[in-house]
Amino acid sequence: MRPRRWFAILVCLCCLVTAAWPAEVKGENKKKERLAVVTVDRVNVRQGPGVPYRPLANVHRGETYRLIDIKDGWLKIEWKKNKIGWIAASYAAPVREMEIVQEDRLRLRQEPGLDGRIIGHLAQGDQVIVIKEKGEWKQIVTKKAVGWVAASYLADAESPTGSRQTGVVTADSLNVRVAPSLDAERIGRLLHGERVEIVETKRDWYKIVTRSGLGGWVAAEYIEMKNGQAVGNQEEAVAESASPAAVDLVTIQGNGPRQYVKKWTRTPVQVLAGKTIVLDAGHGGKDGGAESVNGVTEKTLTMETAERLKEKLETYGARVVLTRVNDDYVPLSARVATARLYQADAFISLHYDSAEDEDASGITAYYYDRFADYGLAQSFQGPFSKLSALPFRGLAFGNYYVLRENERPSVLLELGYLSNRSDAEVVATDSYQETVTTAIVNAVRHYFQ
Ligand SMILES: [Zn+2]
Questions:
Q1: Which of 134, 249, 284, 390 stands the most exposed, by the fewest C-beta atoms within 10 Å?
Q2: What is the Å distance from ligand 1's center to 262 Cα?
């Protein structure tokens, strides 16, 4: 498959333009929105400012809500989108700022000062909500506790408004648009369960930033807010539900500074358990694809690569589905349908390149969707860069049917040029097939870890 260079260049220009805008998010929304954080384990939200009023819901420690008014010892908050209620002021506090813990095992104390009783520890990277300051000390709220920490171990969370929140996508697939409107251009999509940072709210839309730093607008109704604390990764979630002893940190003995590692590292065998990977051996049947000067066809090579990959991925516990198992002609639409049918966690299309320039050489990883696909494509950067057999040409936008029409995270890999005499010899060797499939497996593991 030959990439359409001119189109790629045009898209790259567009990327440059759009890549610039998430930066302006910071300056755009200076208007400070007041937030209140819940300081007790659980408290009722009531219909009015007083105990006789009917309870509407429960809110919990560490959760933040938009603060609308303060009246007679009660806080008026927006406890759910467009739902207003009241909580007793003694069970919540106005948020001063959000900060990030800069040191592992940071001591949380009951009172400010080194004499204060230690009531817990915070981990480096934890997001905390500051509600009070006293000298060099700050009173903070997390999901688990309220306490004091030395201010010098905290740093500003990036948000200038102090109101950045994390959310999780609840729809199967959620469009990301350039502006807060259904008519606005779609620039990507998010998948169910994906975590985003919410940087701005406008009517029923959220302006979000993904972990890879890409931004855009999404319909707010499909984002579930994770109030207060940043959402942890899966390991942390598992750790929280385990017994306290099991989640404690292990000290590694050594001469250098003490290091702490998390105990619950998973064994390699399980890393891809529960993941479905659809492998798409490019071309087949009447469509032979590219052909090398020494007569090797692309369709034969892609099948060989796919079969080796399947075996390796399965040893890590993945469910692997092939879009073709024989030398059959399978239409592109059927290949994409396989990804949808099996709800692929990753779709990997395998190809070998061809170009008029006989010197063109190396590997390219193509993505289409700048959200769902780019993260997957990025995982290939490291493993492919380390290959010595062929140069890695990098990640590129590719307007390929199997990517464009795919609802699942997908990449298309061009694993060497059959039009290049030297590349063609390399890719046909057993050792290349072995190392390139290992690199792909490493990329997939990296993506899911
Ligand atoms: Zn091809």
A1: 134
A2: 43
DSSP state at residue 23: H
- Residues paired with 288 in a beta bridge: none
Other Cβ atoms less than 10 A from the Cβ of 258: the count is 11
Q: Bridge-partner residues for 82, per DSSP?
A: none
Per DSSP, 230 falls in state: P
> Residue 119 C-alpha to ligand 1 middle, in angstroms?
60
Q: Are 351 and 403 in contact (CB under 8 A)?
A: no
For 22-96, strand residue ranges (E) read 35-38, 42-46, 55-60, 64-71, 74-80, 83-88, 92-94
What's the 349 CA to ligand 1 centre distance in angstroms? Answer: 9
Q: How far is the CA of 290 from the centre of ligand 1 (A)?
A: 6
Q: From the options 3.40.50.1100, 3.30.450.40, 3.40.630.40, 3.30.70.360, give the CATH code of 269-448.
A: 3.40.630.40
Ligand 1: centre distance to CA 332 (Å): 12
- 297 contacts 291 by C-beta, under 8 angstroms: yes
Please give the Cα distance from 211 to 209 (Å, whole number): 7
Could you say which residues of the chain have pLDDT below 50? 8-31, 159-163, 228-268
Helix (H) or strand (E) holding 307: helix 298-315
